[in-house]
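New to this. Please check this record:
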Amino acid sequence: MTGQRVRKWRMRVVVAAAALLVVFAAATARVLIWPVQGAPAHVDAIVMLAGAGDRLPATLALAKEGRAPVLVISLGTTGSSGPCPPPVPGVRTVCFNPDPGNTRGEAEYASALARRSGWHSLLLVTSRPQAARAQLIFGRCFSGQVYVSTAPLPAGSWPYQIAYGWGALAKAVFVTRSC
């Protein structure tokens, strides 16, 4: 190869790598940092998933607003999210430990409860990096509408949460495709 050909080849590689980086950054922003959120004024149940962030205050605020008559709270695998919170007046609270101890276990439990209770809509409270994956998994397990509301994350946890979020989302899309 001549020197000019090598330079052209290197430039193409650099441009392609830069384009891939921009696409990856845009996908990360859209899927993990600013996911689609929103819900109607009233749903059948609010479901708080276990994990990082200030989920409980956000969940309790939604319950106190009267967004749902039932609050379903995942305590994590061993109650790692803390004890079941005090009841909200006029709202039935159900706390559980998922089995398996992941988003799929939470979806399986909440969906079974929804079938028994005749629910048609759920509002998930989670962190932004988990939102798209949680909506995907719950959509596989629950036949009704699934909406998402996110709770804030500490700034220092974002790098880990984004890396974990991509890995877990890839697993949900390509490996564990059932409820």
In short: Residues 11 and 67 are 55 Å apart (CA to CA). The chain has a mean pLDDT of 92. The radius of gyration is 20 Å. The longest strand covers residues 121-127.
